[in-house]
Write a structure and sequence with these properties.
This protein is of the alpha+beta class. It has 23 helices and 22 strands. The chain has 4 domains: 124 residues, Four Helix Bundle (Hemerythrin (Met), subunit A); 97 residues, Alpha-Beta Plaits (2-Layer Sandwich), CATH 3.30.70.1110; 145 residues, Heat Shock Protein 90 (2-Layer Sandwich), CATH 3.30.565; 124 residues, CheA-289, Domain 4 (OB fold (Dihydrolipoamide Acetyltransferase, E2P), Beta Barrel). InterPro entries: Bact_Chemotaxis_CheA (IPR051315), CheA-like_dim (IPR004105), CheA-like_homodim_sf (IPR037006), CheA-like_P2_sf (IPR037052), CheA_P2-bd (IPR010808), CheW-like_dom_sf (IPR036061), CheW-lke_dom (IPR002545), CheY-binding_CheA (IPR035891).
């Protein structure tokens, strides 16, 4: 059987399982006793092992198999979840991701060496096995000897009185002639430091030497484990002694064990039922096929627009009815296809808890990442592109924003800093915010660096507003950091963020409060394929302005135009708004403004407005965004093009650039 045909599915599903593994490991670090989390981690490793083995990827199979061995001991409460163990398991996850990446690129796992990681996992097992040898008999006796109600009452009272309960296993030398005498000495010593409430075999059988060379006692005492061991080991002909403290929770949990098992069983059955329902309602579809479907819908909408244009010249009732029906169908089809392309942003957000954890350790800072709105759905294209800008913003927040713990304490802040990552819908846009409660942006440093780099004179710098100073942060090579680190300080980051967001048709706003923190707010259109737009005329040419960026359309007189610093402005609802002569900006031939009334399209970007002067308005229309291609990709004021109903091409105005 040719397994290569399943390679793509294997890679996609393995990526999801590795992401789940990362998320679950970070959660279990916070809740090390959460049984469900441990089971889910084991299940993810087990599934990866099975999938890798089926596809013949031995390194992935062996590594997940060893992880499974370690996790089995955790599930059996024989190994405790510790930060060190989480570190090792996260490294395993990293290596699995590396192997998977190699498989995706070349079809093979590559020559990555997993032996050191394999050995580390083996050490965890060998440490456990050593303990296991010593505890084997002890564990067996605990499992076979079920405490009765009377025993549990005794232990509960002892715990309430501040005593400890011990399980003591005593091995007498095989050469010992009088085993019962040695046992008597042991009992005698233990009675001096506590109360023996049970023994295996019974006291009578021990006195009659009805045992081999080992017996068990249960002791209530305030003595420490070390004291007990020291006293028993001091007795002659005692070969070995094992002392274990009995856990109070385990005693309390015993009566409910069966109930818990029944509950788990019911949950599993319910889970299986719901899984079956979900599985029967979802299928995995190649994203290329979705893109093709989207293109076909786009073409259908262009044809519909053409028919609507024809409809205006041919007044035919039957044609009108048919076009109206077609209009309704294409709109519903477009909505349905768009919903199929929508993906929860959780897929991106889930990558960051691990990154924040690693950076916190690297920088010796205490940082908590709080996520919200993970179920906010965005276009699949945004999912693919938004990760890089968010990485830069979160790294900046941790490195530049959040102060060191001792500094925060001096400022009266909690030692642990917080980074918030939020997503939510705002009309036809999706907003993603990265906020930190750090020291905020140091505007004086920005001013100083801008002067040092010759970007502005000292006198002009004094007139800069906070927003104007923030714009310098988005310039390539501009950094206020005095020290270059592996994380930041090279002036690479925010310019990448700005370029990427603008290429997606969005923009970034920054709000910073000195000493309180900074918010980077990214606003993106919900869809990047089909939008509602306002068509406008400039001379004989038609342009499209995205409707979601339009605040209002107003008409003004020429006399209403004022000048500030040689720039044309108007007063809009009490605010000064810069006017943009779109015809001049785009170089429209023989363009000149009308003599009297001027039509102004007020566009917005966050809290900023600008007024675009146009000749006349055509109307609102659903348009399909087409890329200009690589040869025209550098035109800043144009976001793309669309095909109109008569087959002509109209350029789409990039209003975000104009407001800049």
């Amino acid at each position: 059987m040719d397994l290569n045909q399943y390679l793509e599915i294997f890679v996609e599903e393995s990526k999801e399982h590795i992401e789940d593994l990362n998320t679950l490991l970070l959660e279990i670090e916070k809740n090390p006793t959460d049984r469900e989390l441990i089971d889910n981690i084991f299940r993810a490793a087990h599934t990866l092992k099975g999938m890798a083995a089926t596809m013949g990827f031995t390194k992935m199979g062996d590594l997940t198999h060893k992880m499974e061995d370690v996790l089995s001991e955790v599930r059996a409460d024989k190994l405790k979840v510790s930060p060190d163990l989480i570190d090792v398991l996260l490294k395993c996850s990293d290596v699995l991701a590396l192997l998977l990446n190699n498989i995706e690129i070349s079809g093979s796992e590559g020559d990555a060496d997993i032996s050191s990681l394999f050995d580390t996992l083996e050490k965890y097992l060998s440490v456990y096995n050593t303990l296991k040898e010593n505890r084997e008999v002890l564990t067996e006796s605990v499992n076979t000897e079920v405490f009765n109600e009377y025993d549990r009452d005794i232990m509960k009272k002892a715990f309430n009185g501040g005593f400890k309960c011990y399980h003591i296993e005593v091995f007498i030398s095989k050469d010992c002639v009088l085993k019962s005498a040695r046992a008597y000495v042991v009992f005698n010593i233990l009675e001096k430091i506590g109360d023996i409430f049970k023994s295996i075999p019974s006291v009578e059988d021990i006195e009659d030497e009805k045992f081999e060379n080992q017996f068990t006692v249960f002791l209530i005492s305030k003595a420490s484990k070390e004291d007990i061991l020291e006293k028993i080991n001091s007795i002659a002909e005692i070969e070995k002694c094992i002392v274990e403290e009995i856990n109070q929770e385990s005693i309390n949990a015993i009566p409910n064990l069966q109930d818990n098992l029944n509950t788990v069983k019911e949950d599993v059955e319910d889970g299986n039922k719901s899984k079956k329902i979900v599985a029967s309602r979802t299928i995995r579809v190649d994203t290329d096929r979705l893109d093709k479907l989207m293109n076909l819908v786009s073409e259908l909408i262009i044809i519909k627009t053409r028919l609507l244009k024809i409809q205006t010249s041919i007044q035919d009732t039957e044609l009108n009815t048919t076009i109206e029906y077609l209009d309704r169908i294409t709109t519903n089809l477009n909505d349905a296809v768009m919903k199929v392309r929508m993906v929860p942003i959780e897929r991106v957000f889930n990558r960051f808890p691990r990154m924040v954890r690693d950076l916190s350790k690297e920088l010796n800072k205490e940082i908590e990442l709080k996520l919200s709105g993970e179920d906010t759905e965005v276009d699949r294209t945004v999912i693919d592109e938004i990760s890089e800008p968010l990485v830069h913003l979160i790294r900046n927040a941790i490195d530049h924003g959040i102060e060191a713990p001792e500094v925060r304490i001096k400022k009266g802040k909690p030692s642990k800093g917080t980074v918030y990552l939020r997503a939510f819908h705002d009309g036809n846009n999706v907003v993603i915010e990265v906020e930190d409660d750090g020291e905020g942006i140091n505007f004086q440093n920005i001013k100083k660096k801008a002067i040092e780099k010759g970007l502005i004179s000292s006198s002009d710098a004094d007139n800069l507003t906070d927003n104007e100073m923030i714009n310098y942060l988005f310039m390539p090579g501009f950094s206020t950091s005095e020290k270059v680190t592996d994380i930041s300080g090279r002036g690479v980051g925010l310019d990448v963020v700005k370029n990427k967001i603008e290429s997606l048709g969005g923009f970034v706003d920054v709000i910073s409060n000195s000493g309180k923190g900074t918010i980077f707010s990214i606003k993106l259109p919900l869809t990047l394929a089909i939008i509602q737009a306002l068509l406008v005329n400039l001379k004989n040419e038609i342009y499209a302005i995205p409707l979601n960026s339009i605040k209002e359309i107003v008409t003004i007189e020429r006399n209403d135009i004022k000048f500030i610093q040689n720039k044309e402005v108007m007063i809009f609802r009490g605010e000064v708004v810069q006017l943009i002569r779109l015809g001049e900006l785009l170089g429209v031939p023989e363009y000149s403004l009308p003599q009297k009334e001027l039509t102004v399209v007020i566009t917005k970007r966050g809290e900023k407005y600008s007024g675009i002067l146009v000749d006349s308005l055509i109307g609102q229309q659903e348009i399909v965004i087409k890329s200009l291609g690589k040869y025209l990709s550098g035109i800043k004021s144009i976001a793309g093009a669309t095909i109109l109903g008569d087959g002509d091409v109209a350029l789409i105005i990039d209003t975000n650039f104009l407001i800049n």
